[in-house]
Amino acid sequence: METAFFQFETVAELGSIRKASEKLHISPSSVSRQIQKLEYLYGTELLVRQSQGVRLTPAGELILRYVKGRNKELQRLRAEIDALKNLESGHVIIYTVEGMIGGLLPRALARFGRDHPNITYQVLVAGTDGVMRAVAEDRCDIGISFQPFPRAEIDTLVSLRQPVMAVMSRQHPLAGRRELDLSEVRHQPVGLPDQSFGIRQLVDHVVRSEQLALNIRLETNSIDMMRQFALQDMGIVFLPAFSFERELQSGELIGVPIASNVLSLSTTQVCKRAEIELSPAARRLVEYIRKVADEFVGVA
Question: Which terminus of the chain, N or C, has fewer Cβ atoms within 10 Å?
Answer without folding.
Answer: N
